[in-house]
Amino acid sequence: MNDKPLLNDSTEGIDWPDWGKFRIDVIIDGDQICIQVSYETQQGKFCAKVEDSCASTSSVKLFDVGGFKVYLRSVEICYTSKDKYAKGQVWVEKSPFKTKLGEFTFEL
Question: pLDDT of 84-93, one tens digit each?
Protein backbone atom coordinates (compact mmCIF):
# COMPACT_ATOMS: atom_id res chain seq x y z
CA MET A 1 0.00 0.00 0.00
CA ASN A 2 1.14 3.52 -0.67
CA ASP A 3 1.55 6.08 2.10
CA LYS A 4 0.45 8.95 -0.14
CA PRO A 5 -2.45 9.36 -2.54
CA LEU A 6 -1.79 8.03 -6.03
CA LEU A 7 -3.52 10.96 -7.69
CA ASN A 8 -3.50 14.46 -6.33
CA ASP A 9 -5.11 17.40 -8.16
CA SER A 10 -3.16 20.38 -6.75
CA THR A 11 -4.33 19.67 -3.21
CA GLU A 12 -1.02 19.88 -1.39
CA GLY A 13 -2.56 21.53 1.70
CA ILE A 14 -5.15 18.80 2.36
CA ASP A 15 -4.26 16.14 4.92
CA TRP A 16 -5.82 13.12 3.18
CA PRO A 17 -6.69 10.00 5.22
CA ASP A 18 -3.81 7.53 5.49
CA TRP A 19 -4.22 4.72 2.91
CA GLY A 20 -2.24 2.41 5.21
CA LYS A 21 -5.01 2.63 7.83
CA PHE A 22 -7.73 1.38 5.48
CA ARG A 23 -8.81 -2.25 5.66
CA ILE A 24 -10.50 -3.89 2.71
CA ASP A 25 -12.20 -7.27 2.96
CA VAL A 26 -14.21 -9.33 0.52
CA ILE A 27 -17.01 -11.27 2.19
CA ILE A 28 -19.28 -13.92 0.70
CA ASP A 29 -22.68 -13.46 2.33
CA GLY A 30 -25.17 -16.03 1.07
CA ASP A 31 -25.67 -15.35 -2.63
CA GLN A 32 -23.88 -11.98 -2.49
CA ILE A 33 -20.25 -10.95 -2.59
CA CYS A 34 -19.47 -7.81 -0.59
CA ILE A 35 -16.49 -5.46 -0.59
CA GLN A 36 -16.18 -4.00 2.90
CA VAL A 37 -14.00 -0.95 3.56
CA SER A 38 -13.05 0.11 7.10
CA TYR A 39 -11.17 3.16 8.36
CA GLU A 40 -10.81 3.94 12.07
CA THR A 41 -14.34 3.48 13.48
CA GLN A 42 -16.16 3.81 10.14
CA GLN A 43 -17.21 1.00 7.86
CA GLY A 44 -19.15 0.67 4.65
CA LYS A 45 -19.76 -2.00 2.06
CA PHE A 46 -20.97 -2.64 -1.45
CA CYS A 47 -22.64 -5.97 -2.19
CA ALA A 48 -23.65 -7.57 -5.46
CA LYS A 49 -25.49 -10.76 -6.27
CA VAL A 50 -23.27 -12.53 -8.77
CA GLU A 51 -24.15 -16.07 -9.67
CA ASP A 52 -22.17 -17.11 -12.72
CA SER A 53 -21.92 -13.46 -13.75
CA CYS A 54 -20.13 -10.16 -13.17
CA ALA A 55 -21.36 -6.92 -11.63
CA SER A 56 -19.85 -3.46 -11.81
CA THR A 57 -20.55 0.08 -10.70
CA SER A 58 -18.83 3.36 -11.38
CA SER A 59 -19.13 4.92 -7.90
CA VAL A 60 -20.53 4.00 -4.46
CA LYS A 61 -20.38 6.30 -1.42
CA LEU A 62 -19.44 4.34 1.69
CA PHE A 63 -19.14 6.74 4.65
CA ASP A 64 -17.93 10.13 5.92
CA VAL A 65 -14.89 10.48 8.16
CA GLY A 66 -13.12 13.63 9.35
CA GLY A 67 -14.83 15.85 6.80
CA PHE A 68 -14.07 13.47 3.93
CA LYS A 69 -16.45 11.35 1.86
CA VAL A 70 -15.05 7.87 1.25
CA TYR A 71 -16.26 5.94 -1.76
CA LEU A 72 -15.47 3.11 -4.18
CA ARG A 73 -14.95 3.68 -7.89
CA SER A 74 -14.47 1.34 -10.85
CA VAL A 75 -15.76 -1.64 -8.86
CA GLU A 76 -16.03 -5.01 -10.56
CA ILE A 77 -17.03 -8.31 -8.97
CA CYS A 78 -16.95 -11.48 -11.08
CA TYR A 79 -17.91 -14.98 -10.03
CA THR A 80 -18.06 -17.25 -13.04
CA SER A 81 -16.59 -20.64 -13.86
CA LYS A 82 -13.75 -18.79 -15.59
CA ASP A 83 -13.18 -15.69 -13.38
CA LYS A 84 -13.52 -15.19 -9.63
CA TYR A 85 -12.33 -11.79 -8.40
CA ALA A 86 -13.27 -8.44 -6.83
CA LYS A 87 -11.42 -5.22 -7.65
CA GLY A 88 -11.81 -1.49 -7.40
CA GLN A 89 -10.42 1.82 -6.18
CA VAL A 90 -10.84 3.74 -2.91
CA TRP A 91 -11.33 7.50 -3.35
CA VAL A 92 -11.87 10.33 -0.88
CA GLU A 93 -13.43 13.71 -1.50
CA LYS A 94 -13.25 16.98 0.34
CA SER A 95 -15.24 19.30 -1.88
CA PRO A 96 -14.27 20.47 -4.37
CA PHE A 97 -11.20 18.15 -4.39
CA LYS A 98 -10.96 14.38 -4.63
CA THR A 99 -8.12 11.89 -4.83
CA LYS A 100 -7.60 8.17 -5.37
CA LEU A 101 -5.96 6.68 -2.31
CA GLY A 102 -5.40 3.19 -3.68
CA GLU A 103 -6.55 0.17 -5.63
CA PHE A 104 -7.26 -3.43 -4.69
CA THR A 105 -7.80 -6.80 -6.34
CA PHE A 106 -8.85 -10.00 -4.59
CA GLU A 107 -8.95 -13.45 -6.13
CA LEU A 108 -11.98 -15.34 -4.80
Answer: 999 999 999 9
